[in-house]
Amino acid sequence: MWGVWLSVPDFLGSDSVRSTPVTHPRAVVFGCAGLEVTADEAAFFRDADPLGFILFRRNCDSRDQMRRLVDDLRDSVGRADAPVLIDQEGGRVARMRPPHWPAHPPMGVFGTLAAQDAAAGREAAQEAAWINGRLLAHMLTEVGITVDCAPVCDVPVEGAHDIIGDRAFSRDPAVVIDLARATADGLLAGGVLPVVKHIPGHGRAFADSHAELPVVEADRAVLEATDFAPFRALADLPLAMVAHVVLKAIDPTAPASTSPIVVREVVRGPSIGFGGLLFSDDLSMNALQGDPRTRTEAVLAAGMDVVLHCNGDLAEMRSIVGAVPLLSGAAAERWARAEAMRHAPEPADIAALTNRLAELLGTAQT
Question: What family does the entry list (predicted)?
Answer without folding.
Answer: Belongs to the glycosyl hydrolase 3 family.
